[in-house]
Amino acid sequence: MVVGDVSTGTDVAVVGGGPGGYVAAIRAAQLGLDATLVEMDAYGGTCLNYGCIPSKAMITATDVAHDAATAEEMGIYADPDVDFGEMVAWKDGVVDQLTGGVEKLCKANGVNLVEGRAEFAGGDKLRVVHSGEGQGSETIEYEHCVVATGSRPVEVPGFAFDDDPVLDSRQALALDDLPDSIVVVGAGYIGMEISTVLAKLGVDVTVVEMLDEALAGYPDDLTQPVKQRAEELGIDFEFGLAADSWEESDDGIVVAAEDEDREASKTPQADGEAVDGELAEFETEKVLVAVGREPVTDTLNLDAIDLEPNDDGRLETDEQARTDVENVFAIGDVAPGPMLAHKASKEGQVAAEVAAGEPAALDYQAVPAAVFTDPEIATVGLTEDEASAEGFEPAVGTFPFDASGRALTTGDSEGFVRVVADEESGFLLGAQIVGPEASELIAELGLAIEMGATLEDVAATIHTHPTLSEATMEAAEHALGHAVHTLNR
Fold this sequence. Notes:
alpha/beta; five-stranded parallel β-sheet
């Protein structure tokens, strides 16, 4: 029996239950609004189910095994036996716990949960098509709507994700068995994180990147330690090549990558063979395509509310997360700016508060970013060059982890902390970290920027010894010219 269309009403309708959407729905409910959250797949979105959480779980698990196997200098000799199936099952358990928690939090806060795919139907209405045969549809009338539909992996022509040997990041994190070899197309943060996991598990990894560097967009002195560590793990980098096609072979598949500037006389690539002076070929078992993500706005029927995405497929917003349609907000990956879960959550909070009549607004000056490679990279605020471009006279201080007592006791002393401040006022403007626990250490410096702290404030704050966090204090002292544990130069 087909269930007919039913109609309901709500103060705030949120489309998408990821880290932006569920936060918006919960915050709206906390403010006394009737909030309805529509999710077509799984509560928690890509981040909790298929991206941030499962990838970090796998990174942690593989680090445990790798660290145990490479601790000879500490007098530890081990050869861990990794059961990949059990590792994946543990990862899935972490994901289930968190996604189940999101659903419980929504219900506990009084959020109405609706499963299905939502699109605009005009006249401040959403049409929700429920999954499953005969489940029908539902019309939701709203006072305010928050679009939080997230993003999806970008496909490369010739590499369809529904082809068996071709993986996206979600599929790569859900493998039943490890391949012997893999070609990773893309050296951005997703490609680099998954490449590191697989290499530590013994997979032969080749990274094919059309640019001339890994982690483009980050300063070279942050990315070089990551690239060097990856090469030590056995990862081969092939820069300046664009993945072109793949075909089956006797031993798996052959991935072809094109370089118009390659000369036929050049030496073939380490794991490939130059063909006709224009192609390199790589024999492999699987290929992971990780060239980026694109916003999901094409499923929303935006024409029904006369809202048009920009050239990047995103919805332009103001400082209150409003789109060009007054009562429609856009947050997370469908809004301008970096695709970061914590940015989405803050935008969701602001959108809900604005819908409730609160004087909320977004402030992006201290949005941190992190790459969970080995070593980690984390940044917040301005770099030295960006500070100069904005008219500041930057004061810069650094502290290397190989001068940190705590870093040395962990056996992981690669990298440094760098702080950037305004020379005249001393106000902290930005920070960059590469090294152990960079993703955790950046929080202190983000808080310093948000509260308007100066170098003196950070340097005068007594930090526990011995800890990695002392490096932030030491970097501030270096910028002030009175460092004790590193040379002032």
